[in-house]
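Memo to structure team: turn this sequence into structure tokens by end of day. - J.P.
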Amino acid sequence: MHSRKRSPPIDDGSPRPKPRQILWHPLFALDPRDDASLQLQIRRSLVTAILDKHLRAATRLPSSRALSRHLGVARNTVTLAYRQLVDEGFIVAHARSGYVVSSDVADRIIAKASLRQDNTAASSVRPNWSTKLSGHFIDQRNIQKPPDWYTYPYPFIYGQSDPALFPTADWRECSRNALAVLAIRDWSADMIDGDDAMLIEQLQQRILPRRGIFVAADQIMITIGAQHALYMLAELLVRPGKIVGIENPGYPDARNIFTMRGAALRALPLTRDGIAIDESLADCGLVYLTPSHQCPTSSTLPLATREALLDHAERHDMIIIEDDYESELKFDGSPTPALKSLDRSDRVVYVGSLSKSLAPGLRIGYVVGAPELITECRALRRLMVRHPPANNQRAAALFLALGHHDALIRRLTAVLAERAAVLTAALARHVPELRFQQPRGGSSLWIEGPEGLDTRRLAEAARRAGVLIEPGDVFFDTPPAPCPFFRLGYSSIAANQIDTGIRKLAALLHA
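Reply from structure team:
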């Protein structure tokens, strides 16, 4: 069906006064493996042909019977596609001559094309963009993942979900309900700097209380993922030269965001359980932490250390940003209370997200803080994006309200616990020289290899063998050379693939 060989024009039995014959076959690329329906594929093919000017104004289309016969699909499929295109103004239905391409659409395309050509001709000297840019962010050290990671047989990468675990039916139900007439009236308007009230309410009632956090609505704001929240907080709380403490190793994107604002970063060394309350915190006006599930080591900051940290923050007028990712994915009992739940003086700014539990592509996060801070956050967000897409907010609110998120967390926790057990057993069997903490939750392991191991080279060799791992050097402020640390994620790899993947990795490491 994708062949480009010449095929005869469709003969629907009517006279053909057209000045040229159209080879209809190459215009359609119907693929039964495509997730889109055949009707949608037909519409997409015709719209592309019209917008790309392969079909001119007033071009007569084949009858629905002729096109359905030619494509090998039901006639009703073609008829519904034609009707939709008529409604959208791409084609016009004539009583006697059938369907033709709309002249109005074709004229607009020609006008835009002419304008683009005129603008191109008027400008012959391109700017030197390297001198125009205020910074070169491409040079920052970031976590790198192949865009086609899902094609690898053994993807031990973090931050990607297993499509088999996504609650497709439940999310579809919530999306359909969000498209009901009354719901559309709620979210289709410009909220300016507001959020979906139902989602805020669900966060207050369903999500935050499990972390011991009870706040008013004016202390919560929705963001486009947790990283969006960090960017805004850095904009509001960091001035050039301000000392900002960050865990070492720690989250690279947080380090990059604070650096962009001119912060003087203070690398906070880690103990087995997280940061220590010592002289490394001296003069820090702001500290960024991942206390419940440290990035990347997965350690949990003990309750006593949390209380000592809050006491230090109050005595030294310090603000703490708590990134509480993956805290709900605990394998053994109740999670440690969030740092924010112990805060009595509004010094902790809490950042959460639905990305790790629901889907990273939805980009739904939230920030919880003092009302004065949230008011400024809303004003800043309005200048950036106004507000996150309100239809996604409403669908997420319904997902929480109908109990789907609770069911998903139970299912995810069970699956991830099983995969973690398989992974740790495989590591003990095939590479006992590697060191790691037994996982208590989450979806990744932080691995320390033998001295002298270069995990950057190991990762490249593993990639060629179909195994994806994440070298650990990017997490360090100043990485050891060579760096013997790396991260293994298990959210996106099936349990039955883990042992074979580790066996292959072990062979490469031993070689």
